[in-house]
Design goal:
With about 150 residues, this protein is mainly alpha-helical. It is built from six helices and two strands. The protein has one domain: Winged helix-like DNA-binding domain superfamily/Winged helix DNA-binding domain (Arc Repressor Mutant, subunit A, Orthogonal Bundle). The longest helix is centred in the N-terminal third of the chain and has 34 residues.
Length: about 150
């Protein structure tokens, strides 16, 4: 029975930094997804109601309300009675950044042969975890390949 060599462990600070980056990305992914969806709903139908947000994200209405409240506390969204949810300028900037990251990741995945639907699904996770440095490399690769 042959053993696969185990790579050396990184130093503790290096490993802690790597895991910390992943935890930070996970905590911001939810706000990013909500901001992106709210922007899309506003652009397509002129309103983003909590009920629509909940249905499109596959969460309960209560979960959507709780997360929208978080966006409001963080200064990313506002709401008006009987009018739904709106993004603040900061929320709009976040949504635009996330949408751009998403498109770039999808474009890279498609360029390396990933089918369209799989690329869209995979980009939903990758877009929150990839660094700006890596995104720049994706962009350079696509510019050379195109």
């Amino acid at each position: 029975m042959s053993r696969v060599p185990i790579p050396d462990l990184p130093t503790e600070p290096t490993q802690a930094r790597r895991f910390g980056k992943a935890r930070t990305a996970q905590s911001t992914a939810l706000a990013e997804d909500y901001a992106e969806l709210i922007a899309d709903l506003l652009a397509s139908s002129g309103e983003a109601r909590p009920t629509d947000i909940a249905r499109r994200l596959g969460v309960s209405h209560a979960t959507a309300i709780k997360t929208i409240a978080r966006l409001k506390r963080e200064g990313l969204a506002t709401s008006r009675p009987y009018r739904g949810v709106f993004l603040t300028p900061e929320g709009e900037a976040l949504a635009a950044r996330v949408k751009s990251r998403h498109r770039l990741v999808v474009d890279l995945l498609r360029a390396v042969g990933v089918p369209a639907e799989a690329a869209e699904q995979d980009a939903e996770g990758i877009e929150h975890h990839v660094s700006d440095l890596t995104l720049a490399a994706f962009s350079r690769y696509l510019a050379k390949a195109g």
